[in-house]
């Protein structure tokens, strides 16, 4: 905390406002999808196709980061995790099954209610909260995830600074977001939304971040990218991990 200004600073000394970065219009948009979030044939169909790809990357990153995790059935046992922008829990629930004590944050109260109901129905205990990550006070987590969220916030730098504050010493951060390329504009904004795989109005292509831009923002917050992988699509494989970053990408991030 900078006593003279009242602002919170990142470890690199840059100011990080405590105000939330969620756009109310974005929260309202995703809140309207709450009832269909768990329907693999509904308006969130693309997320259901994307989730196994993300989970494969996440599990590999966990195994690399914590040496003992690779041999464990529940590699996150004894560890805490937070999923920022959790929606109705598509990622939070698998993290809980991997053994983590999971907190899920979402700006839409409707999503939090849907997530809580689904977790209770399948017998999982997850701490879901309708709160911005910037409003967390003093809580840190071994694993911080935020999937397909940063392209929806009003201030990406402030959002990343808040994620950094939530990361425990020695912890692991995993992010994913679309790249700002002609390919992503065609596939994610034009094709996916027009074909009903993603709800209309979900994406603003101009708010997508390139890997270079996101890496620079992370560096400014005192964080280091240790791995980047693309999520690509083709008619035979569907969505899959790839060296091609043109459509979407995942990042492994640590402090320092």
UniProtKB/TrEMBL annotation:
It is an enzyme of class 2 (transferase). GO terms for molecular function: 2-polyprenyl-6-hydroxyphenol methylase activity; 3-demethylubiquinol 3-O-methyltransferase activity; polyprenyldihydroxybenzoate methyltransferase activity. It comes from the Bacteria. It catalyses: a 3-(all-trans-polyprenyl)benzene-1,2-diol + S-adenosyl-L-methionine = a 2-methoxy-6-(all-trans-polyprenyl)phenol + S-adenosyl-L-homocysteine + H(+); a 3-demethylubiquinol + S-adenosyl-L-methionine = a ubiquinol + S-adenosyl-L-homocysteine + H(+). CDD domains: AdoMet_MTases (cd02440). Pathway: Cofactor biosynthesis; ubiquinone biosynthesis. Pfam families: Methyltransf_23. Residues 1-24 are annotated as: Disordered. One of its GO terms (biological process) is methylation. S-adenosyl-L-methionine binds at residues 54, 85, 106, 147. SUPFAM superfamilies: S-adenosyl-L-methionine-dependent methyltransferases. InterPro entries: SAM-dependent_MTases_sf, UbiG_MeTrfase. Residues 1-13 have a biased composition (Polar residues). Belongs to the methyltransferase superfamily. UbiG/COQ3 family. O-methyltransferase that catalyzes the 2 O-methylation steps in the ubiquinone biosynthetic pathway. This is Ubiquinone biosynthesis O-methyltransferase. It comes from Sphingomonas ursincola.
């Amino acid at each position: 905390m900078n006593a003279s200004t009242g602002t919170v600073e990142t470890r690199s000394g840059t100011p990080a406002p405590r105000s939330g970065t969620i756009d109310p219009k974005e929260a309202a948009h995703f809140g309207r999808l709450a009832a269909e979030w768990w329907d693999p044939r509904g308006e969130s169909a693309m997320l259901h196709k994307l989730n196994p790809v993300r989970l494969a990357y996440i599990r590999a990153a966990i195994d690399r980061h914590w040496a003992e995790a690779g041999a464990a059935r529940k590699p996150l046992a004894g560890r805490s995790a937070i999923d920022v922008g959790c929606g109705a829990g598509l990622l939070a629930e698998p993290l809980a099954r991997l053994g983590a004590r999971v907190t899920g944050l979402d700006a839409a109260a409707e999503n939090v209610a849907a997530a809580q109901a689904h977790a209770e129905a399948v017998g999982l205990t997850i701490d879901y909260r309708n709160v911005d990550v910037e409003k967390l006070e003093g809580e840190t987590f071994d694993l911080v995830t935020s999937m397909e969220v940063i392209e929806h916030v009003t201030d990406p730098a402030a959002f990343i600074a808040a994620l950094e504050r939530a990361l425990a010493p020695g912890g692991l951060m995993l992010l994913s977001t679309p790249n700002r390329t002609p390919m992503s504009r065609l596939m994610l904004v034009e094709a996916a939304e027009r074909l009903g795989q993603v709800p209309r109005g979900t994406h603003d292509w101009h708010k997508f971040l390139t890997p270079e831009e996101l890496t620079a923002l992370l560096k400014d917050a005192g964080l280091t990218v240790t791995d980047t992988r693309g999520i690509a699509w083709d008619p035979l494989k569907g969505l899959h991990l790839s060296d091609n970053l043109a459509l979407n990408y995942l990042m492994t991030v640590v402090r320092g």
